TrEMBL record:
Organism superkingdom: Bacteria
Protein's name in the database: VOC domain-containing protein
Biological source species: Chengkuizengella axinellae
InterPro entries in the cross-refs: Glyas_Bleomycin-R_OHBP_Dase
Length: 200
């Protein structure tokens, strides 16, 4: 199940505010302050630390089965998408990625597969990365890529007809549209992602 995307962005506070206005809950803030990584989680808000010159490594917002993360970068840069999978699905996807000669970085909490399309795929088996407090879902991502073949390769990797990720050709790699069920309106986020509301 598609559940996640991650950006690096100079617009960290603005991105958090954008998703909070759509009903997302801030669940994690980790940033480098005075040479050390520290947590600045709620109930702390930006007025508590805005002037501290914190370099945020990750801010996480959640709504239903959606988990979106972003961290500080000098320019807006799309990094990865994420799928929540069972252990059985994980094992099969891992084997197929090896057969496709895609690079795999296996970690304790998550595994990243590097695609030839300029972004990574996170495989996540831990259900605690989503809240499920409502039925909000990340229905589809439309990703701009520089080369053809993304849907075909993802269908091979996941061994299913890939409907949750579509692509269009362009001169950069980024998420153009995120189709979400469970938000009240459609808006463009500070990093250029058109977040599109669909009803049930």
């Amino acid at each position: 199940m598609l559940f996640h995307y991650h950006f690096w962005t100079p617009n960290v506070e603005e991105t958090e505010r954008f998703y909070k206005e759509l009903g997302f809950e801030v669940t994690l803030r980790v940033g480098k302050f005075q040479g050390e990584f520290q947590k600045f989680n709620p109930p702390l808000n930006w007025n508590d630390f805005r002037d501290h010159n914190i370099l945020f490594r990750v801010i996480e917002v959640r709504k239903g089965s959606i988990n979106i993360t972003f961290g500080y970068g000098k320019k807006v840069m799309f990094d990865h998408i994420g799928f929540l999978v069972s252990q059985k699905e994980y094992n099969a996807i891992y084997d197929r990625a090896k057969e496709m000669n895609w690079s795999i970085d296996e970690g304790d909490r998550r595994t990243f597969i590097t695609t030839p399309y300029g972004f990574k795929i996170e495989l996540q088996t831990n259900m605690d990365v989503v809240n499920d407090q409502d039925d909000s879902t990340l229905v589809q991502l439309n990703i701009m890529v520089k080369d053809q073949g993304l849907e075909k390769d993802l269908s091979l990797l996941f061994n299913t007809d890939m409907k949750s990720v579509t692509s269009l050709l362009g001169d950069m790699v980024t998420v153009k549209e995120a189709v979400i069920q469970g938000i009240s309106t459609s808006k463009i986020d500070p990093n250029g992602v058109e977040v599109i509301n669909i009803s049930h």
